[in-house]
Amino acid sequence: MSNSISTLLLRNLSDVFGENDPVQTENTMSNSISTLLLRNLSDVFGENDPVRRRAAIDEIFHEDAVFYDPKGGIFRGRDEIDRIAGVIKATHPDFEYQPLFPPEELGDAGRVRWVSGTPGKPPAYAGTDFIVARNGRIASVYLFFDNLP
User: Fold this and answer.
1) Whether residue 40 is found in the same domain as residue 54
2) Residue 135 contacts by C-beta under 8 Å, 6 or more apart in sequence?
3) In total, how many domains does the chain have?
4) pLDDT for 43-66, tens place per residue?
């Protein structure tokens, strides 16, 4: 579709939907699977500041998103994801997540393998995050712990 036609369609949708145009809203908030995976690591589970962490959660997670933690259960919704991310980060506030490889994408899903630990020291643990996205936001996150490389 040409740029002028898509612009015209978006203007027409804006006239119909006004500020709540679902197409325009989704387009402006859409993220790639790789971006979602990396932001989840750094801006959510790697963030010490609760205000910045919550802002990131609101930007990249669906309201009804689910986080599956193999050690801690199932956490539903942004509030619970925010709570458990804060609890996890508080156990090791100096740890940083480092992707081992670039994220991989397949359809509406993706994964990233990572290690975490104190910068300048050997990693303390490793894992893989697998996400399913919907309309450019995380719908679910599955955490797997791995053996250190």
Assistant:
1) yes
2) 26, 30, 62
3) 2
4) 999 999 999 999 999 999 999 999
Per 3-state DSSP, the chain is made up of helix, strand and coil in percentages (nearest 5) of 45, 35, 25
Q: What is the DSSP letter of 42?
A: I
Q: Give buried/exposed letters for 75-104 (b at 16+ CB in 10 A, else e).
A: bebbeebbebbbebbeeeeebebebeeebe
* Domain extent at residue 15: 1-30
- Give the pLDDT confidence of 107-149 residue by residue, as tens digits: 999 999 999 999 999 999 999 999 999 999 999 999 999 999 8
Closest CA to 149 of 106, 101, 121, 115: 115
Q: What is the pTM of this model?
A: 0.79
Between CA 149 and CA 136 the distance in angstroms is 31
